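Task card 7
Instruction: Convert sequence to structure tokens.
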Amino acid sequence: MKHDETCEKDLLLQKTKSELEDLVRSFDKNVIFSKTDLRGVITHVSEAFCEISGYEHHELLGKPHNIVRHPDMDKEVFKDLWDSLNDTGYWSGEVKNRRKDGSFYWVYSKIEPDFDLDGNKIGYHAVREDISAKKELEELSKELEEWNEYLEKQMTDRIREIITLNKDIKETQKEVVFTMGAIGESRSKETGNHVRRVADYSKLLALYYGLPEEEAEMLKQASPMHDIGKVAIPDSVLNKPGRFDYHERKIMDTHAQLGYDMLKHSDRDLLKMAATVAYEHHEKWDGTGYPNNLKGEDIHIYGRITAVADVFDALGSDRVYKKSWELERIYEFFKEQRGVHFDPALIDLFFENIDSFLEIRRKFRD
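Output:
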């Protein structure tokens, strides 16, 4: 009997290893990714990084990252980059780079620090999105202003087609990145600390609710994927300042279904949990949520917990469409929404243990 169990575990380990290797290969091929030490010397690059830059791996490793710096880039951009990394631990922005053959390409970069097991900062990692087509279109748009009305209309229609095709390609790449859970950040310009806080809030609330430690820890790992469906929402909606109109709200609300559709086919426990979180974290206790108008305990506990964690952090953070709320206003909202938006038992646990949640909030302040 023990021999059979051992064989079964070995097969499961082999399957898991194979799946992870497939994910790593997909990540390496599709994601423009690099790591550096604290001085900016390259320690790792992905295949996609080599492809877009024109360099081989051995030509990049051990070299300063400015090997791909384009002379057109203002030095103040890189001063701001290092100042931001030293101050907040995070930087994002558009960068023009130079290929080995002298040509150029544009990327949107997101950079965060790496830490060792003792919490010491040991370097940085960066994920980039190729936005060359977008930048070329911006330049083309300037020229179009000088053309007559008819030609401008014809060219604009063609540009829209190119943008649509380009977006489909980018969204496919993003799905690979975010499904792996390697990048704890969404395109909605929320800092990495948002998902860190939501993860810790979710685990804490799960433990107070009575979930086992292992299950609570898995929820901590799965909860950062709650908004993964937003990778498929257009930037014009996702990062719009101010309120959505009816059409924009309908588009935005599809992210729960989209996130579920991305994750639901996996047979891995973590991704199955993440699929549930993505699908149900916008359902409401009184049945007025979305996408399925689930009510009460018909909403999975993972969705109910993540809803409390996500809303608590979102209300207390600046967003493109609002300023952060004061704590007292948040508390009042939670009391009003007890049994309306939120599971009343979870709200009671939240207030009974409020100091623990505030400690996490202070620890990972943006």
